[in-house]
Amino acid sequence: MNYGSFDELIHAPNRLMICAILELVDEMEFALLKDKLAVSKSVLSKQLKLLADANYLEINKATQNGRQRTWLSLTEEGTEAYKEHVKALKSIVG
Amino acid sequence: MNYGSFDELIHAPNRLMICAILELVDEMEFALLKDKLAVSKSVLSKQLKLLADANYLEINKATQNGRQRTWLSLTEEGTEAYKEHVKALKSIVG
DNA sequence: TATACTAGTTTCCATATTGGAAACAAAAGG
DNA sequence: CCTTTTGTTTCCAATATGGAAACTAGTATA
After folding, report:
1. Span A7-50, pLDDT tens digits
2. Per-residue pLDDT tens for A19-29?
3. Pick the CATH number of A8-93 from 2.40.110.10, 3.30.710.10, 1.20.1250.20, 1.10.10.10
4. Strand pairing partners for B29?
5. Strand C contacted by B7 CB (< 7 A)
6. N or C, which end of chain B is more exposed by having fewer CB within 10 Å?
7. CB of A12 nearer than 7 A to strand C
8. SS3 of residue B27 by DSSP
9. Whole-model pTM above 0.90?
10. Contact at 8 Å (CB) between B77 and B35?
């Protein structure tokens, strides 16, 4: 039986939300994610960097119709870590 | 539909474990809980105080067979808050 | 080209959290 | 008394968190 692996990096409220959202929608724009979380852009940027540094998150920048956009998505490693963390959570809270 | 109420006090890893354990077993001794969490007594004492200050935890001291023992248990308010937090978690992680 | 705007990033700073060791307190036993 | 047991509180260092402001890069506009 696999009880999952508790991941403190993912557990923090904002980062848990980020992972949960990105796992569902596969990818999302910075600005939209910022609105969903209701945090400042500096805070979001820093939380994203933490996830990216752990190879949990991919940050893709592109220009569309003259607008700069940043797309976020979990890497495979990030998705796996998130799923493991969810397992761990479930084994804790039942 | 009730999505629960995310509770940062409960969410922190050690405190989440404390609540999860106490919700299951109803009450537990300080020393045993300390072993389960694998933290120092000062750390456990402080986390317990935080929960107690929020009226989430009851701390009962008694002397049994000449030994001082401290029993921990969630209050009704604590149990309720924990359950709400678990709901919130589940609504986040699916 | 100069200026302004958009979209994030990084710096700065203040506050909060976390953790263990050590000092302390209280109760019980010898 | 002195010691042991069982937590609590203090002390101190390390990390985390958050927003505002400064900064950067790309794009648009005059």
Report:
1. 999 999 999 999 999 999 999 999 999 999 999 999 999 999 99
2. 999 999 999 99
3. 1.10.10.10
4. B71
5. no
6. N
7. no
8. coil
9. yes
10. no
